[in-house]
């Protein structure tokens, strides 16, 4: 009897051991299948993100010019490109333009987008149709939008100057060729393009706020401004933060809007770091190493704010899960 019990106990102890190789093989097979599904995305990221960034950084450490394409030689010069970049008289104006362009775009895109989103909270005829039509500037190709604004800003036949003249002003306003107005011109165009994105995201955030809160506040005698201050804005703050962080990253990368309207001119007065990096590499001496250095600086700034956004999103997900 004792021997039978011992035999049964030994069989039970040996059972997990016999199943362990099968379980291990199944786990390995699942891991391999999972990695195969990830392989296309991994190849895409490596080919179109990691490799260009790494190659651009390598170029910024070399004397990479048109001659390099002929001889294949790109002497390593370390941080010399960055030193030349900072000492370039056009560097700080480009940085200043980038700051003004980014801050102005974010402020007006967010403010006007929020006002329009609040307006569409009210029910009126053709609400949904008008809300769909306001997406046109965001959905249209940027080059098409740029061509439209070039026509609008035209000194002689532009609608904007015509409207200003109808108000009594008789002078000619050169929006695209005046050094004091060129940056304002591309700023207005970029604000127009970005308003729909802000409006859509903020409108979705407003729709998520329970109506019962406003009804309770109205019963307590709260005004429309108090309802916005104490209900709408606090509950909309997470969405607003995401919109501003994404808008910041997108605006820092704006290239096609400026190139399609002013090309950074006149005399680089509407040049930002992004367009200036392009001009250094492809239109102003073909100094690809110097242009890559300017691109690296912009990339670090965008990466920093991108990590800030990911950190905020991760914290929001943790708070929601808990």
Structure, explained:
- With 322 residues, this protein is mainly alpha-helical.
- It folds into two domains: 16-71, no CATH class; 91-270, MetI-like (MetI-like fold).
- Helix content is 76%, strand content 0%.
- It has 14 helices and no strands.
- Helix 9 (182-207) packs across helix 11 (224-252).
- It starts with a helix and ends with a helix.
How are the elements arranged and paired?
Layout: H1 2-60, H2 66-71, H3 80-87, H4 91-119, H5 127-133, H6 136-139, H7 142-152, H8 159-166, H9 182-207, H10 211-219, H11 224-252, H12 256-261, H13 273-282, H14 288-321
Helix pairs in contact: 1-14, 3-14, 4-9, 4-11, 9-11, 11-14, 13-14
In short:
The protein is an all-alpha fold and 322 residues long. The protein contains 14 helices and no strands.
The major β-sheet equals:
none
CATH topology of the largest domain: MetI-like fold
Question: Which spans of ≥5 residues are poorly predicted at pLDDT below 50?
Answer: 1-6, 9-15
Distance N to C terminus:
55 Å
Q: In angstroms, what is the radius of gyration?
A: 29 Å
β-strand percent reads: under 5%
Tally the beta strands.
0
Instruction: Decide which structural class fits the backbone.
Output: mainly alpha
Q: Write down the CATH class of the largest domain.
A: Mainly Alpha
Tell me the domain tally.
2
Instruction: Give me the CATH architecture of the largest domain, please.
Output: Orthogonal Bundle
Query: Secondary-structure element order, as H and E?
Result: HHHHHHHHHHHHHH
- Mean pLDDT equals 84
In percent, how helical is the residue content? over 70%
What multimeric state do the chains show?
single chain
CATH level-4 homologous superfamily of the largest domain? MetI-like
| Outline | flat
Distinct helical segment count:
14
